[in-house]
């Protein structure tokens, strides 16, 4: 145990043979091993989940918006209620909702699955 003391080969062999009987550290190595194994399993699960979320996000970001939807979204930006520029304007919220539901219907379909994955 003394790092300053030189140990010869015969003593090393003797210590290696009786180390399992002496157990100088008690059951601490087994406890540490078990705790590390549990933490590595948890991290493996977290990393796997993050990888799956990453793949899903890349698929979501690969959405192509049609030219018709681009025109409707441009018109929607001119609506005072949709853009939030004038609260005194005549409401056109129905138009806003119809455009959003029509152009982003694919996103609305995956919303429940996305929320359950995040949960």
UniProtKB/TrEMBL annotation:
Protein name: Glypican-1
GO biological process per UniProt: cell migration; positive regulation of canonical Wnt signaling pathway; regulation of protein localization to membrane
Keywords in alphabetical order: Cell membrane, Glycoprotein, GPI-anchor, Heparan sulfate, Lipoprotein, Membrane, Proteoglycan, Signal
Membership in a protein family: Belongs to the glypican family.
Subcellular location: Cell membrane
Pfam families in UniProt: Glypican (PF01153)
Source organism of the structure: Panagrolaimus davidi
Keyword Zinc-finger: no
Keyword Lipoprotein: yes
Gene Ontology, cellular component aspect: cell surface; extracellular region; plasma membrane; side of membrane
Bilayer disposition of the protein: Lipid-anchor; GPI-anchor
């Amino acid at each position: 145990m003394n790092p300053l003391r030189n140990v010869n080969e015969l003593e090393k062999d003797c210590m290696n043979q009786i180390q399992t009987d002496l157990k100088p550290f008690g059951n601490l190595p087994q406890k540490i091993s078990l705790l590390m194994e549990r933490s590595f399993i948890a991290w493996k699960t977290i990393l796997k989940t993050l990888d799956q979320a990453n793949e899903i996000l890349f698929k979501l970001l690969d959405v192509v918006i049609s030219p018709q939807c681009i025109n409707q979204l441009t018109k929607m930006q001119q609506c005072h209620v949709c853009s939030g520029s004038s609260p005194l304007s005549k409401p056109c919220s129905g138009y806003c909702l119809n455009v959003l539901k029509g152009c982003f219907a694919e996103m609305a379909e995956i919303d429940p699955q996305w929320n359950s994955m995040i949960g």
